[in-house]
Design goal:
alpha+beta, six-stranded antiparallel sheet, 30% helix
């Protein structure tokens, strides 16, 4: 290849790369704007939603957007309280989601702390109880099932994480300091983006 041909080849490659990069930036900006609009009215503070790392053009072509959903301890407490029928406190670190709750039993209440681990099940991702401390004593989570209705169902069944195929589907779950991180996908359509607010508001599990 002579010098002139090489120069034109390089110029052509640069133009193509520039066009691809430019298109990616435009599509990414469009997706980010749509995502921001869809999550602007989230009722629960401490929930953040941002674009994932998958190229925006690929997301549009596949019809699913790649998301990173971060939920802090206060938001987990708000979203999970419905599973315990009482206010709870939540703490998150890199090893577990710990929820402190009062358990009624035979006319009195006992302070309990439940440590949850994320686990993938055939029905989707759940926070599964791994350890339970009641009144300062550690007991197997399954043992509390003998307490009947006094034990919150979440102690036995765990807490299901949002998974609505038409709105949001969780693909993986990880723990960070004061943050439960969900990797998820959602429809790339505008109506699909608007559907994000439902699973991320009010109650999980």
């Amino acid at each position: 290849m002579n010098k002139r041909a090489w120069v034109w080849t390089a110029v052509g490659a640069t133009v193509v790369v520039g066009a691809v990069v430019g298109a990616e930036l435009v599509v990414r900006a469009n997706l980010d704007a749509r995502l921001e609009s869809a999550t602007a009215d989230l009722a629960v503070e401490g929930v953040s939603v941002s674009s994932g790392a998958t190229p925006a053009i690929v997301q549009v072509l596949t019809g699913r957007v790649d998301l990173r959903v971060g939920i802090d301890g206060a938001a987990v407490a708000t979203l999970a309280a419905c599973r315990f029928d009482t206010p709870v406190e939540a703490r998150i670190d890199s090893t577990a989601v710990s929820i402190a709750v009062e358990i009624p039993y035979r006319g009195t209440t006992f302070p309990a702390t439940i440590s949850f681990q994320p686990e993938q099940t055939p029905d989707g991702w759940r926070l599964v109880p791994a350890a339970v401390t009641v009144g300062g004593f550690e007991v197997p989570p399954a043992l509390l099932s003998r307490a009947g209705e006094a034990a919150p169902a979440a102690l036995i069944d765990g807490i299901a994480l949002p998974s609505t195929p038409d709105a949001i589907a969780v693909t993986s779950v990880s723990l960070a300091e004061d943050e439960l991180v969900l990797s998820a996908t959602a429809p790339a359509s505008a109506s699909g983006a608007r559907g994000l607010a439902g699973p991320l508001n009010g109650c999980i599990g």
